[in-house]
Amino acid sequence: MKSNPGVTVFIPVYNEEDLLVKNTLLLLDFLDRLDMPHEVILGSNGSVDDTVDLARELSKRYGPVRFFHIAFKGVGRAFKEGIRMSAYERIVTVDMDLSIALDFIPEACRLLDYSDIVIGSKITGKQQRSWIRMAASNIFISLAGRFLNINYHDYSIAAKGYRKGLLEKYFNYIDDHTFYVVEIVQRASRNGCRILEVPVNCMDMRESRFNLIHEGVYKFGHLFRLWLKTRKTKS
After folding, report:
1. Domain annotation covers residue 2
2. pLDDT of 235
3. At what angle do helices 131-148 and 180-190 cross, to 10 degrees?
4. What's the rounded Cα separation, in Å, for the pair 91 and 109?
5. Per the domain annotation, does 1 fall within a domain?
6. How many Å separate Cα 18 from the centre of its chain?
7. Are 85 and 41 contacting, i.e. CB atoms less than 8 angstroms apart?
8. Residue 169 falls within a domain, yes or no?
9. β-strand partners of 38
10. What confidence score (pLDDT) does residue 4 get?
11. How many domains are there within the chain?
12. What would the DSSP string read from start to end of 61-124?
């Protein structure tokens, strides 16, 4: 399965002017020390602060940085564009706050040489997050396991590694928002793809970029719809 040796690191960004430059440079320094071809794709979705101008300047100044801006907010919408743009077969996603320990990136690259998806799990690692976010995640993960028969421990956007070929196969199932990780993992698991899960360390005490009530209704609603769709397929 091993192919071109590089990695695309994709970061969805929304109003990240305070962190964008500092953390992009930290990430570039880390990737340079890995001694492998790499690129960083910054995908602005709906940003209305100085994120767009700062990211555009970074892409002009630093060769590995690529940038695009979509007028409407939507992580999945941005992820699809990132897949289209990516130069490498291995795609790893992180958040702009770099709240997941960066050692996940080389570990995911190594594992993607003989797997299709690598899931970075905060629950099986160490996490410092607000209790309400951890509680909501735990409930969602438990229900996903019960409804969809996928027994992994993290379906968040960050700390995921994918083979580009697999993402292209499931491209039409990537929704515009945040449920696409569940959909991809569920379909890949059902189709016998190799999925590996590794613990990650996470320190994320800042306020969520999402409205937690709206995000909860959206995710739990989509989980129920996917469960219904799966039941109809089996019957």
Report:
1. no
2. 45
3. 30
4. 8
5. no
6. 21
7. yes
8. yes
9. 7
10. 63
11. 1
12. H-TTEEEEEESS--HHHHHHHHHHH--SSEEEE--TT--B-TTHHHHHHHHTTS-SEEEEEEEE
Measured N-to-C along each axis, helices 180-190 and 212-234 cross at an angle, to the nearest 10 degrees, of 20
Q: What is the CATH number of the domain that holds 116?
A: 3.90.550.10
Domain around 136 = 7-234
pLDDT of residue 211: 61
Calculate what percentage of the chain has a pLDDT beyond 90.
Answer: 77
Burial (0-12, 13-18, 19+ Cβ within 10 Å), 191: exposed
| 188 close to 162: Cβ distance less than 8 angstroms | no
Q: Which residues contact 185 (CB under 8 A, 6 or more apart)?
A: 117, 119, 150, 152, 155, 195
Q: Give mean pLDDT, residues 191-204.
A: 94
Per-residue pLDDT band at 217 (split at 50, 70, 90): confident
Look-up of token digits 């996940």:
104
- Is 66 among the domain residues? yes
